[in-house]
From TrEMBL:
Pfam families: EryCIII-like_C, Glyco_transf_28
Sequence ranges assigned to domain Glycosyltransferase family 28 N-terminal in this UniProt record: 3-77
Residues covered by the Erythromycin biosynthesis protein CIII-like C-terminal domain: 287-392
Top-level lineage group: Bacteria
UniProt organism field: Kitasatospora arboriphila
PANTHER family (UniProt xref): STEROL 3-BETA-GLUCOSYLTRANSFERASE (PTHR48050), STEROL 3-BETA-GLUCOSYLTRANSFERASE UGT80A2 (PTHR48050:SF13)
Matching InterPro entries: EryCIII-like_C, Glycosyltransferase_28, GlycoTrans_28_N, UDP_glucos_trans
Keywords: Transferase
UniProt-recorded name of the protein: Glycosyltransferase
Length: 409
């Protein structure tokens, strides 16, 4: 049986599916992962077939001005992203598939492909996309508004997403020979049918809302693939062994062009707090030199994080989960998208200091937050408690069970 996983976005939107795909492959399925071309090595390293999924991952919104990204820039880049995705989405399916696993970014297009081809589909989302009274939608700038307000803003967020997808969906359905159907109408059809969606995050961070419809379940985190023989580079091992556990500072795919400013802030904060540090270059290009600081590229979180004193990060879903899994406290500096949501969840369970908004980041604020999370045991205890909770979850196994139920039933 051939399974096609379709995901789009930054590295953090793709990497979890490499681990999920590898687990499905070990269970005997043929697995392909469709993503943008820059992620081909990541996919193939997990032993999965790579299929190209056109999407301009480089045209991502920058930090903007004030307290967050420019909303107009966000809308423009999101619309361009969806348009690129829609133009070539069907080509990824042409390679053959018996089941589609659709991320939150690909589902609004994948539903139409499933209709045209008759291929069954299953949602595999990294963020809680369904409206609920428990919390507001995971889009930037939305504060809790009570149960009624949270549900209404959640539905509004879906309507905005539907409008963004409308041109791409119109073109895709025309290409597939399907009658017109708006993104909103298709979404309502999915909801009425209680189409299954599994969410790849831990209930240590978000418990399943009681007001979700049947078919929406939290599976547990899907971890990026790591080879059994992978090791940290010698220079990283030497640095880790040469002193107390350091702090990692990294912003993943965020903050392009901000490297000089962020590197200066990070080094000054670490030294104010009396801590050693590892700067992960990322898209920002963080870099520094010194006996107490090391600059690194991409490294497996599973190998590095358990050996740290704390992690300073942008609160992406994957990095947030990885720090918890390692039992390591965090200082979060959310930039955009769902990052403020995850930063708030980490703080709510006591595993992180209160978030520092990206544009409010200073060496003084970061140093103070680092002193708190490193020297107050409550933060590490909360992270360790979440790590223990996560050991009882099997996110990939839950998807495997759903796949078998869907295909055997």
């Amino acid at each position: 049986m051939r399974i096609l996983i379709a995901a789009a976005g930054s590295r953090g939107d793709i990497a979890p599916y490499t681990g999920l795909g590898a687990e499905l492959r070990r269970a005997g399925y043929e697995v392909a992962l469709a993503a943008a071309d820059p992620f081909a090595p990541l996919v193939r390293a997990a032993g999965l077939e790579f299929r190209s999924l056109p999407a301009d991952t480089k045209a991502r919104p920058g930090p903007g001005t004030g307290t967050g990204p420019d909303p107009r820039e966000l809308m423009r880049t999101a619309a361009a992203f969806v348009t690129d995705l829609g133009r070539g989405f069907a080509d990824a399916v042409d390679g053959g598939a018996d089941l589609l696993l659709l991320s939150a970014t690909t589902a609004p297009l994948g539903w139409h492909l499933a209709e045209a081809t008759g291929i069954p589909s299953l949602g595999v989302h990294l963020q809680p996309t369904a409206p609920t009274g428990d919390f507001p939608p995971t889009v930037p700038g939305v504060r809790p508004l009570g149960r009624f307000g949270n549900r209404m803003t959640g539905r509004l967020a879906l309507r905005v997403a539907d409008r963004l997808h409308d041109p791409a969906v119109t073109q895709l359905r025309r290409r597939l020979g399907l009658p017109p159907c708006s993104p909103a109408a298709m979404r309502r059809r999915q909801e009425r049918a209680n189409r299954p969606v599994l969410y790849g995050f831990s209930t240590a961070l978000v418990r399943r809302p009681a007001d979700w419809r049947p078919g929406l379940e939290i599976a547990g985190t899907w971890w990026p693939h790591v080879d059994a023989d992978d090791q940290l580079p010698p220079e990283v091992e030497d640095f880790l062994r040469s002193g107390p556990p350091p702090v990692l500072v990294g912003f993943g795919s965020m903050a392009s062009g901000e490297g000089e400013r962020l590197s200066d802030i990070a080094v000054r904060a670490l030294r104010r707090a009396g801590l050693r540090g590892i700067l992960q270059a990322g898209a920002a290009g963080l870099a520094a030199e010194g006996d107490d600081v090391l600059t690194v590229g991409d490294l497996p979180h599973a190998l590095l994080f358990p050996r740290l004193a704390a992690v300073v990060h942008h609160a992406g879903a994957g990095t947030s989960a990885a720090a918890l899994r390692a039992g390591v406290p965090a200082v979060t500096v959310p930039v955009t998208a769902d990052q403020p949501f995850w930063a708030g969840r980490l703080a709510a369970i006591g595993a992180a200091a209160d978030p520092i908004p990206f544009r409010s980041l200073t060496a003084e604020a970061l140093a103070e937050a680092l002193r708190r999370v490193v020297h107050r045991p409550a933060y590490a205890q909360a992270a360790a408690g979440a790590a223990e909770h996560m050991t009882g979850e099997d996110g990939a196994g839950r998807v495997l069970l759903a796949v078998r139920q869907l295909t055997d039933g």
